[in-house]
Amino acid sequence: MTEATIKLDQVSIRYQKHVALDGVSTSAKGGDIIGLVGRNGAGKSTLLETIAGLRIPNQGSASVLGQASQNLDDRGRHRLGLVFQDDELFDWMPVWRHLDFVSGFYRNWQTERVDQLLRDWQVPVDRRVGDLSRGQRQMLAIALALGHDPEVLLLDEPVSALDPVARQDFLARLVELACDSERTIVFSTHLINDLERITNRLWLLSEGRLLIDEETDQLREQTRRLTVRARQDLPASLGLAGTLREHIEGRNARVILKAEQAPDLAALESKLDAQISSERLGLEALCLEYLS
Amino acid sequence: MLLDINTSSGTPLYRQIVDQVRRLVSGGQLQPGDELPSVREVARRHAINPMTVSKAYSLMEAEGLVERQRGKPMRICAGAVRDDNRIEQLDELLERLVLAARQLDIDDATVLEAVSRKLKGLKP
């Protein structure tokens, strides 16, 4: 088993009275591409910043690549790649100077890779950073985060400003990176559809709590939506094993189940005197069920 | 090997890969001994997580569809074809059963139950 590259143990973070993270425990290993989803204010950015050591937990502990996040030394920091929402780019520098500037901090800077990315994404290197479009600026931040070949890549809504073509290209690059070597990539997004192909794991945050921390394949396989149409009014709860959510209205019910074994529909149909259909959910539908 | 990955489906991607390779074998587009592209090639071409592809390959190996060769690509097993054709021979019958059940407005669970009873009747 590969050693954990990221480890969170009961991490809680409070901003005055607001609880941003509430007892989050999880881990990630090399090779993981993790999708981080949740509504605005759910704690996604705080979670990524805590892993990177930019926020210190009020309770619990975070570590990355074997070091406590809050005590990362330069060597540890050089093994991380970060793209955060408030980028720290210098508006007054032309893009090419910015590349020079950042590459100076790293011994293993991959000039060729970064230049290629910017060419492919048509980011004008002669322009001042402050004059780039939001999308171009995001591309520059991504290219810079990849330049030193990081082992752990933390991306906070990296594609929010990209057009669909650039977004697809970016996702394909992430897969390339994952193929190169066993990295850990965590990226938050509202575009859940983007996660379907490339992630193997999903973290879903709601009000600071980690509601889902699971392999995406397992989620898809074990989660089902049952639509129940009964001939008589249904009880207040159907009491099915593994029920996550249940909406019952008179004779109709919709139940989200998560269970290793598919329920015995025929038995259930005769018990409830109902017609029941069962379907599996894609990640997007599944996340919506959890979040709405 | 061109795969058609449907991301909005609830079927896990590794399952989709396995099913499609199996169909390609049944359809004769992949023959016993044919080598499969590497995990990374498939991951790159379809922009899928390499771990997902790797999982699909392991499952195909466990199911006897492909075999690992030392230091060489995975290849389709000699025995893979016959097994698949056997179940495919039922396909036409199954299709007729489904159609008849739809016309009679019998719901799926009841049809499955009837099939399962019938199977048990044949093998008590």
Name the features.
heterodimer; A: 292 residues; alpha/beta; Rossmann fold; 2 domains; 10 helices; 14 strands; elongated; B: 124 residues; mainly alpha; Arc Repressor Mutant, subunit A; two-stranded antiparallel ribbon; 7% strand
Overall geometry of chain A comes to: elongated
Measured as a percent range, the helix fraction of chain A is: 25-40%
Backbone shape of chain B: elongated
The structural domain count of chain B equals 2
How is the topology of this model organized?
The complex is a heterodimer of chains A (292) and B (124).
Chain A: E1 4-15, E2 18-29, E3 33-37, H1 44-51, E4 59-64, E5 67-68, H2 74-77, E6 80-83, H3 95-103, H4 111-120, H5 134-146, E7 152-156, H6 164-180, E8 184-188, H7 195-198, E9 201-206, E10 209-215, H8 216-222, E11 223-230, E12 243-249, E13 252-258, H9 265-272, E14 274-280, H10 283-291
Parallel strand pairs in A: 3-8, 3-9, 6-7, 7-8
Antiparallel strand pairs in A: 1-2, 1-4, 4-5, 9-10, 11-13, 11-14, 12-13
Chain B: H1 13-26, H2 39-46, H3 50-62, E1 66-69, E2 72-76, H4 80-88, H5 91-103, H6 108-122
Antiparallel strand pairs in B: 1-2
Structure description:
The complex is a heterodimer of chains A (292) and B (124). Chain A is elongated, with a radius of gyration of 22 Å. Chain A is α/β, with parallel strands linked by helices. Chain A has two domains: 4-207, Rossmann fold, CATH 3.40.50; 228-291, no CATH class. In chain A, the strands form three sheets. Chain A has a six-stranded mixed sheet, with helices on both faces. In chain A, strands 2-1-4-5 form a four-stranded antiparallel sheet, covered by helices on one side. Chain A has helices at 44-51, 74-77, 95-103, 111-120, 134-146, 164-180, 195-198, 216-222, 265-272, 283-291, and strands at 4-15, 18-29, 33-37, 59-64, 67-68, 80-83, 152-156, 184-188, 201-206, 209-215, 223-230, 243-249, 252-258, 274-280. In chain A, helix 4 packs antiparallel against helix 5. Chain A contains ten helices and 14 strands. In chain A, a hairpin with a 2-residue loop joins strand 12 and strand 13. Chain B is mainly alpha-helical and 124 residues long. Chain B contains six helices and two strands; from the N terminus they run H-H-H-E-E-H-H-H. In chain B, helix 1 crosses helix 3 and helix 2 (39-46) crosses helix 3 (50-62). The termini of chain B are far apart. The mean pLDDT of chain B is 82. Classes of the chains: A alpha/beta (292), B mainly alpha (124). At the A-B interface, helix 6, helix 7, helix 8, helix 9 and strand 14 of A face helix 1, helix 2, helix 3 and helix 6 of B.
